[in-house]
Amino acid sequence: MSIQRSYINEDTPLLVKDVVIIVQPRRGSSWYASVFLVVNAALGAGLLNFPDAYQQAGGVLIAVLIQAILLVFVVCAIMILAYCSDINKSLTYQDVVASVCGKNAQRLCAFTIMTYCFGTCITFLIIIGDQWEEFFLYSARDWYCNHSPWYMDRITTICVSSVLLILPLCFPKRIDFLKYASVIGVIGILYVVALVTIKYFLPHHEPGTIATRPLHWEDVFLVVPTICFSYQCHVSIIPIYSCMENRSLREFSKTVAVAMFLCVLNYTGTAAFGYLTFGNKITTDILLSYEPDVSVIIAVLLIAIKTYTTYPILLFCGRAAFDCLWRDFFKMSPERIEQTEFKHRITVTIIWFVLTLALAVFIPNIGVVIQILGAFAAIFIFIFPGMCVLSAVQKKVRDQGHWTTKFKAITAFSFAFIVLGTFIFGLTLSQSIIQDEHGVKGDKSRYTC
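RESULT FIELD:
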């Protein structure tokens, strides 16, 4: 076993949501081993918000139908990126964009990744505040409720625990040492899935009103950002594909099929059972809907560990994307980059951490951020893959000197991807802004003081 390449380094603004450090044997990974990497990249914080998204969309049936439709595009986008990566044997997402669409598209890709990572870091800090509240309600409810000590305040717990447990992990030049923490992350996510499912079949309080249709037709799109955020593993897909033993679309299609089946099973099961358990009494973080007990606290601790160890990965990826834009803008030479690397890394890390911490303190729940992040995830799922297909077809047309029916059909398909992605991005971003313009309520446990 040897490390042939780490796909997270200071020059690669790639991976979001979860770490995917590729540690592979010399012959590469099999298609079924790659399944776990894809599942690890896809299953993330969106799971906690999925049941509430079902409530906003108008019930389980509508949400599942929207999810099924979007899943077709999600899978198509993955295969498009894999196909385009084969043109120049690209190893990363931005390599694909740069090789097919050019330098300007690569800059846009880096900026989008940076923005997405920044928002995801805020989400993680908000989740940390949620988990601490649930822990205090279980371990010291009377003291927490009757005295409200400052050291149990949400702002204090987020700030102090983040400075102590997250910030020290954000400074290293490499983050390979965090690769084993992803195992705990996957265990935590699967535990939450099992917990929500089992709790539904156990005796529980009467749920609130369960919607069977949306109040307004446009409400069906409220589930779209959560779906896009949750299934967005496209940035990690190319590194995973490039390390396969048999790098071919045929083999990779088996990986994608099994991985997406497992993701659908986990997301849909959690969302449906979670929503049917609580109805319109659901919170944006599903764990806050349950009465604190040992089983829930175990889930809280696992999610907290996952969050503390995943934030540095997102900061690292966002910092790398920023560095890419910074060096490109100032036309920095390799020597200059090397001379300023340490000071630049420390400065960017501190500024990034402080900004995300400040925003997390004032943003009341994860639903607010996930709505916006879901809009940006649509760029990775729809717009960039559509641009890649369009550019690849145009290049082939130039090489052959004429258009064929096949090329015209693929061009129309790529335009549909870009238009749909732009529509989803604009609509969901607008909906999130309009929804929050009159203020947002903080996400509190149903069993809070």
